[in-house]
Specification:
This protein has 383 residues and is an alpha/beta fold. The protein has a single domain (5-88, 136-381), classed as TIM Barrel (Alpha-Beta Barrel). The protein contains 15 helices and 10 strands. The chain has helices at 5-13, 35-45, 67-72, 86-93, 130-134, 151-161, 175-183, 185-194, 196-221, 244-263, 282-288, 306-313, 328-331, 334-348, 368-381; strands at residues 77-81, 101-102, 108-113, 116-121, 165-169, 227-231, 269-273, 292-294, 318-323, 354-358. The longest helix is centred in the middle third of the chain and has 26 residues, at 196-221.
Length: 383
């Protein structure tokens, strides 16, 4: 019996087998498509639609796909985003061409080549005291009503249609990555080791602000969300960025607090995005209440052991992702993409608890034929 997309996702979240494995693509920066492959995909499909960006943020580079493309991708989830304060948006929209893009935290991006932007504005690089945190002049106003003024209407409309699962995707970076944005990765990791009192205070400040905006977002969304996205990148290609001991001592309490805050305010499932090899933290994620783990970077260390991941998480945490974006999607043939999707589904899909997605955003090098090969393989073999 055919299911709606929302029924398909909800069935999977209950660790039951739906009519086919759900697909989540084009929904957020973590499960999205960069603008260049999106444009090539529209051209291949003959779809005439405006180029739009998630969060209306061109420098981030991730497309906000039109509905016709989303339907062709068989994506079972629709996203609801927040917005930057209107003044910040207007300031960046009207700044000189090629000038740095500064966000509402005072952090920002530099253009490293035409049209390609990279985080490079770290205003708290030299900070190392509690007083410098307290006196930082650019903490964002999380009570600005423009941020979430659209959320109630958008979530209510999607839930009223009842066709797709609805995922809230507020752009916060979240405490750990936000500390990187404020200080630079090297400097903050050094502070975690050498100046833990300061590092904990900065993480706590970031957490408090994240919770403030998250509270407004969840209140506006009401009961209309199925999934809420959070996350902090914790892994590298071969191991964790920090030791499991340091994670559990310093960062895990921050994540646990945020997840608890969310679960007190919504029945939506918590979707946690973290790149790299995070295998050694799987039990921690389950303990904290993570419902969905993404993106399952199969090219990173022990995350390639899908059989063991399935064994450790089944019935406890849904897996989302696992279609390789480092080698297969950008450089494989459509036939190789299909073969890889089938391999991953054969391991992760039985019994439910798996949603197909690329490992993070579909990047510039991915040909549109391979994007279609990925989703069509799910249609062909995922039933």
């Amino acid at each position: 019996m055919s299911m709606t997309s929302r029924e398909r996702v909800l069935t999977t979240l209950k660790f039951q087998e739906p009519d086919r494995v759900p697909i989540i693509l084009g929904v957020s920066n973590a499960t999205g498509i960069k603008m260049r492959p999106y444009q090539r995909l529209k051209e291949l499909l003959g779809i005439q639609a405006e180029d739009r960006y998630v969060y209306d943020w061109p420098e981030l580079g991730t497309a906000l796909p039109d509905e016709a493309t989303m339907q062709r991708l068989h994506s079972d989830v629709r996203g609801v985003l927040d917005r930057l304060p209107k003044a910040i948006h207007e300031r960046n929209k009207n700044r000189p061409e090629h000038a740095d893009c500064i966000d509402d935290w005072g952090t920002g991006q530099k253009e490293i080549e035409p049209g390609i932007w990279y985080p490079g504005i770290h205003p708290m690089t030299d900070a190392g005291t509690i007083e410098e945190i307290e006196n930082y002049p650019n903490w964002p106003d999380m009570d600005d009503p423009y941020r979430v003024s659209h959320v109630a209407e958008e979530t209510r409309k999607l839930r009223g249609e009842n066709l797709y699962a609805v995922m809230g995707t507020p752009w916060l970076l979240f405490p750990f990555e936000r500390a990187f944005a404020l200080q630079g990765m090297d400097k903050f990791l050094l502070n975690m080791a050498m100046n833990p009192k300061f590092a904990k205070a900065l993480l706590q400040k970031n957490l408090d602000l994240c919770k403030q905006l998250m509270g407004h977002f969840l209140k506006a969304a009401g009961d209309n969300l199925d999934i809420i996205k959070i996350g902090d990148d914790l892994g590298t290609q071969e191991k964790l960025m920090i030791s499991p001991r340091m994670y559990r001592k310093i960062l895990k309490p921050i994540h646990a607090d945020l997840i608890s805050f969310i679960k007190e305010r919504t029945n939506a499932k918590v979707f946690f995005h973290t790149d790299g090899d995070v295998f050694d933290l799987i039990d921690d994620f389950i303990e904290m209440g993570v419902d969905i783990l993404n993106p399952i970077q199969t090219s990173a260390g022990k995350m390639s052991n899908l059989e063991e991941l399935k064994k450790k998480t089944y019935g406890k945490m849904v897996l989302c992702g696992a279609v390789d974006t480092q080698h297969i999607l950008p450089y494989g043939t459509p036939e190789e993409v299909e073969k890889e999707v089938l391999r991953v589904m054969d391991i992760l899909a039985p019994g439910g608890g798996y949603m197909v997605a690329s490992v993070h955003t579909v990047m510039h090098e991915v040909p549109p034929e391979n994007i279609l090969a990925m989703v069509d393989a799910v249609e062909k073999y995922g039933k």
